[in-house]
Inverse folding.
């Protein structure tokens, strides 16, 4: 696995799918995972690597990237310069950037801080905290109720009500809501994608990680095309909240993928790759 150094000297790793690092046939898409979790859960994004080369970053302290000496650097806003260091390492004047889930907060902050360095920005089932958009419990429950005919619904919905009501922490029990199909493939994906660095997860959104007013103001200088892709059934990133996030960008396109949850490339790889490939060009 190739590596490079962050500005503070932390060695960071990335995975490559679909071509050599410096292949001349098209610029790569730099992909930022959520979690923060080992980037393996992204795979090759449902076969997107057949259309564009993927450079998938392991955020510091996850996957094969090193644990930093200063763990306060796990904070989302401080990770922005890790992405910039990767761009410089790749020798690219601009990058197409894809962020999933919490990684979309990092991608958004990168676009705000380095607007001239992004060609296109794809936000997949995005987190919205960087833009100051709070997702209410009722918004999550509204999406969840679309699954009322599923056999697992009663147990999972009761757990969701407890979580959103502040009386429970049973995120494991609501896992079926994150997938368009709750089957063996989904269960295996869930098991493989659990974050293994709890400190990195806890500090990602530490105080000062997000400055929504400043981020939205900075995005007025960001004119690159933006794709916001939401899953119809995604309780983590409900389509209505994703649509609201799109209002912060000058040139944004919202796509709601039918039947998809929080991992749309897993639920319908063909539809997902067609949408993202058409956007990236």
């Amino acid at each position: 696995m190739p590596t490079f150094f962050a500005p503070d000297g932390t060695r960071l790793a990335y995975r490559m799918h679909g071509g050599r690092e410096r292949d001349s046939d098209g610029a790569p898409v730099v992909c930022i995972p959520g979690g923060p979790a080992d980037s393996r859960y992204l795979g090759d994004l449902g076969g997107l690597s057949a259309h564009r080369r993927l450079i998938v970053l392991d955020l510091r302290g996850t996957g094969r990237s090193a644990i930093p000496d200063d763990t306060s650097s796990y904070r989302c806003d401080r990770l922005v310069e890790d992405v910039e260091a990767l761009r410089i390492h790749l020798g690219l004047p601009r990058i197409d950037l894809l962020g999933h889930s919490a990684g979309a907060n990092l991608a958004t902050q990168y676009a705000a801080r380095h607007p001239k360095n992004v060609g296109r920005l794809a936000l997949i089932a995005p987190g919205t905290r960087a833009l100051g958009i709070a997702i209410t419990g009722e918004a999550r429950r509204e999406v969840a109720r679309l699954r009322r005919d599923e056999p697992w619904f009663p147990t999972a919905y009761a757990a969701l009500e407890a979580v959103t009501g502040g009386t429970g922490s049973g995120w494991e029990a609501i896992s079926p809501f994150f997938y368009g199909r709750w089957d063996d493939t989904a269960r295996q994906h869930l098991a493989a994608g659990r974050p293994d660095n709890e400190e990195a997860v806890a500090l990602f959104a530490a105080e000062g990680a997000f400055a929504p007013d400043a981020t939205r103001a900075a995005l007025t200088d960001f004119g690159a095309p933006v794709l916001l892709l939401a899953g119809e059934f995604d309780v983590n990133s409900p389509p209505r909240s994703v649509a609201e996030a799109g209002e912060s960008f000058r040139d944004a396109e919202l796509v709601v993928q039918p039947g998809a949850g929080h991992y749309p490339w897993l639920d319908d790889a063909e539809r997902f790759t067609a949408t993202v490939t058409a956007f990236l060009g």
Summary: The two ends are 27 Å apart (CA to CA). Strands lie at 3-5, 11-17, 29-32, 54-57, 95-100, 118-124, 226-231, 252-257.
